[in-house]
Design goal:
single chain, alpha+beta, two-stranded antiparallel sheet, 3 helices, 4 strands
Length: about 80
C-alpha cells in the first residue's frame, strides 16, 4: 500500500482481519536496519494505534509501517498459512 496521510476504518479493519486470520513467523528483517524480533508483541500495539488513530495524520507513518510489515511477510514467504 502506498503511503497515505490518513487511512479509512475499512482499510484498518481489513489489515487487522488479515493479521487475525494468518499465521506468520515471529521475526522479520525488513532491511535498512529495521528488524522486528518479536512480531507477536509488536503487532498488537501497532494495530491498536491503527484502530484508534487511523484518521490522525500524526500516526500515519506507524500505520503505514504496519501495512509494510504485512507486505514484507508475504514477500519473504514468512506467512505459514491461514488460522
Amino acid at each position: 500500500m502506498e503511503y497515505k496521510p490518513t487511512y479509512t476504518k475499512e482499510e484498518v479493519d481489513e489489515l487487522e482481519h488479515w493479521f487475525d486470520t494468518h499465521t506468520y513467523e515471529t521475526e522479520l528483517d525488513m532491511g535498512s536496519g529495521l528488524h522486528i524480533a518479536d512480531l507477536r508483541n509488536t503487532l498488537p500495539q501497532m494495530l491498536h494505534v491503527a484502530r484508534t488513530k487511523y484518521d490522525n495524520r500524526t500516526f500515519s507513518g506507524q500505520i503505514h509501517l504496519t501495512f509494510k510489515i504485512r507486505e514484507e511477510l508475504i514477500k519473504q514467504n514468512k506467512v505459514t498459512g491461514e488460522k
